[in-house]
Design a protein that fits this description.
Number of strands: 9
Protein name: Class F sortase
InterPro entries: Sortase (IPR005754), Sortase_dom-sf (IPR023365), Sortase_F (IPR042001)
Strand order of the largest sheet: 2-3-4-5-8-9-7-6
Strand content: 25-35%
CATH superfamily: Sortase
Keywords: Hydrolase, Membrane, Transmembrane, Transmembrane helix
Pfam families: Sortase
CATH class: Mainly Beta
Mean pLDDT: 77
Largest sheet: 8 strands, mixed, barrel
């Protein structure tokens, strides 16, 4: 793949999530307060999970938050995802750095925020596609409430999260608290974010973002 292709693809994700950077203060506040395009080209926006959630879905109770430990791998059994996690910061423009574009199977964790499993909202971002193929978060919009996300941590344990909603949010009229604020004070929560909506060829970016919300419900070895 050429350098030009890598730059273009990286630009799609950066453009798609750069607006989220304005919310970094909110993520940190949450921590303190709680001390392949067709895959995601959905024109609808809002709380997709609530709209299609069967009335008899019973979500498990939240588990008490864990101590701090760095994430090493993200597993989504329903999607067959087992992805290494890399710590990411901010780029020169103040945007969260996505994983390297030549590593489309890697997930980025915002290292200045909450560690997954600790109290507050931990943030992970990933590519939805490259110029030629799907990437690690290509199908996260298909997750459903009650399904499991696991984060392997460097303390030897596994933080197990249960999905409680999936949203596709446009950048226009975006509600920061709805997307990234803690859903329930004191819980350990997780957000997975990738590009969504439709791909706009003119701006070389997606029109929305997919936001998967989950909360800690268990642990494993």
């Amino acid at each position: 793949m050429s350098e030009q292709e890598r730059s273009a693809g990286s630009g799609r994700l950066v453009t798609g999530i750069a607006w989220v950077v304005l919310l970094l203060g909110l993520w940190l506040w949450g921590r303190e307060a709680t001390d392949v395009r067709e895959g995601v080209s959905r024109p609808a926006t809002g709380d997709m999970a609530a709209a299609g959630r069967p009335p008899d879905v019973q979500l498990p109770p939240a588990r008490r938050p864990l101590g701090e430990a760095l994430p090493q791998r993200l597993d989504i059994p329903e999607l067959g995802v087992q992805a290494p996690v890399v710590a990411r910061g901010l780029d020169d423009e103040g945007a969260v750095e996505p994983p390297p574009f030549d590593q489309p199977g890697t997930v980025g964790w915002y290292a200045a925020g909450v560690t997954p499993g600790a109290a507050g909202t931990a943030l992970m971002v990933g590519h939805v596609d490259t110029e030629t193929r799907p990437a690690v978060f290509h199908r996260i919009s298909t997750l459903e409430p009650g399904e499991t996300i696991r984060v392997v941590r460097d303390d030897g344990g596994v933080a197990e999260f249960t999905v409680d909603d999936i949203q596709v949010l446009t950048r226009d009229g975006f509600d920061a608290r709805q997307a990234y604020g803690p859903r329930s004070p004191g819980r350990a929560e997780l957000r997975l974010i990738t590009c969504g909506g439709a791909f706009d060829e003119a701006s070389d970016s997606y029109t929305a973002n997919v936001v998967v919300s989950a909360y800690l419900t268990g642990t494993g070895p």
